[in-house]
Amino acid sequence: MDSMLYLVDLFGTMVFAISGVILAGRLRMDPFGVMVLGSVTAIGGGTIRDMSLGATPVFWITDTTYLWVIIVTCLLTMMLIRHPRRLPWWVLPVSDAIGLAVFVGIGVEKALNYQDSALVAIIMGVITGCGGGIIRDVLAREIPMILRREVYATACIIGGAFYTTTLMLGATPESAFLSCVITTLIIRLGAIRWQLSLPTFALDK
Amino acid sequence: MDSMLYLVDLFGTMVFAISGVILAGRLRMDPFGVMVLGSVTAIGGGTIRDMSLGATPVFWITDTTYLWVIIVTCLLTMMLIRHPRRLPWWVLPVSDAIGLAVFVGIGVEKALNYQDSALVAIIMGVITGCGGGIIRDVLAREIPMILRREVYATACIIGGAFYTTTLMLGATPESAFLSCVITTLIIRLGAIRWQLSLPTFALDK
Amino acid sequence: MDSMLYLVDLFGTMVFAISGVILAGRLRMDPFGVMVLGSVTAIGGGTIRDMSLGATPVFWITDTTYLWVIIVTCLLTMMLIRHPRRLPWWVLPVSDAIGLAVFVGIGVEKALNYQDSALVAIIMGVITGCGGGIIRDVLAREIPMILRREVYATACIIGGAFYTTTLMLGATPESAFLSCVITTLIIRLGAIRWQLSLPTFALDK
């Protein structure tokens, strides 16, 4: 289970790095700028989580595997992807959904290792899942899409709530983790497939 | 005194969350995006303060009351406010001024619990008061108004300086705190009432 | 060596603060907003570095000299600089290059005091050198130029790699530090002199 989880975590890191690289490519950054944006997207959320919890040095200092995965991913993406539109349209969003789901589960789990509150754990799931993408969009001077639509923060919150609820109901940590990842994934995949979004909260200007 | 202070702190948290919700409404975010923006505005400044001081886990992890207040505030604001322009014009700025003044006082006080420098304490007051609003504006892709005009950072700095100066002159922590809050509040209210602003520092492009 | 290094570090702090003040002047901020932008530019990178390493309280809390240098620098810059274009064109970029080179060296050194990984040390050099400028540009609502061109992150990465490589090859920490600073400086000065930039990585929109 643990080594499986670690591999999926690294897969999430790869996918998020790729999304940073693609945005960087649209902004015509230089190769090292590309790596900065890829890295920030992949580890930004977990870094804020660890800083808030006081879990320092943060995770990518303790285990540099994450950094190597990001470096190799960024290099390969720059070499191989020239025309992202030629990929089947669903490859990137589905990969992103898998990465997101795993990151939410890991965020909740790590928070529960440090403190007891279920609410804080859910929030740490959201931060781990959404933080990197928000920093990526801010650096690219876009209003973070994550906040605007796409049932994105929503999926994280519901997934995180599944984790803490099943755990409270007596589930093992493993099955609570799985229920969280699967819930988040299903909601995101459903939102992608049927282009769901919540009604927005709109005020007059 | 302490429980009074705690209540005013929670009031500041509410007010700042509302200002995040209103900006989110203008950007037509989805409900969970609204809650993210409301939360960031309310606890962003104190989070940066605690991370810098090494006061981790940060305050809203140690005491989740803040989070519950934010959640309820965001939900109520979304349900009740549809036309913010129908409120008397002064309600939001005056509430914001009260929140700001309290946050500055709390930031200075917390910094003095961790270290001795008056300068660092004043800066922590500014960070606690202005940090959340700056993050809110960055996420909404606006140049933080706090930096541009309105005697906003200015009020925090002068209020914080009152705290440390009166304390050095022999005041009790309670009266130093009060003098800080009242000074910050008066400056902000005066700036709102008479639309004061400092001359800007302007360079040729 | 140590006191020399400290002086150069303070020089770097001054130069970065000036670059924040000049951007603030172009955005017509009020004087305290100017000081916020100057401070963030000068200490932002080192703050993120210290938070990630768990080196808290962060450096400017432990040694407030940095803050005083920033305050005096911001005040003097506001009083003396009205027409930055009247300075010889190379003064600001060359000073910035010196500041950057020193910050990279200091970031690498500090990281090596806290952990063993050369990769993490190089990244901390990049964060220390580029972090403040990135926050400055985000607050001013610009896509960080550092990421786009100018061989900026590139110079930091190569300089940091020189530090860790020479150290591994048996150099003293002093000479490793010097080789890092000189390498970073030469690359940046060369990039400024000949307007070098790497080919950008560009994707179709």
From TrEMBL, chains A, B, C:
It is found in: Cell membrane. It is a multi-pass membrane protein. One of its GO terms (cellular component) is plasma membrane. The chain crosses the membrane at residues 6-25, 32-52, 58-80, 87-106, 118-139, 151-170, 176-196. Keywords: Cell membrane, Membrane, Transmembrane, Transmembrane helix. The keyword Transmembrane applies. It comes from the Bacteria. The keyword Cell membrane applies. Residues 7-80, 94-165 form the Glycine transporter domain. Belongs to the UPF0126 family. This is TRIC cation channel family protein. It comes from Vibrio qingdaonensis.
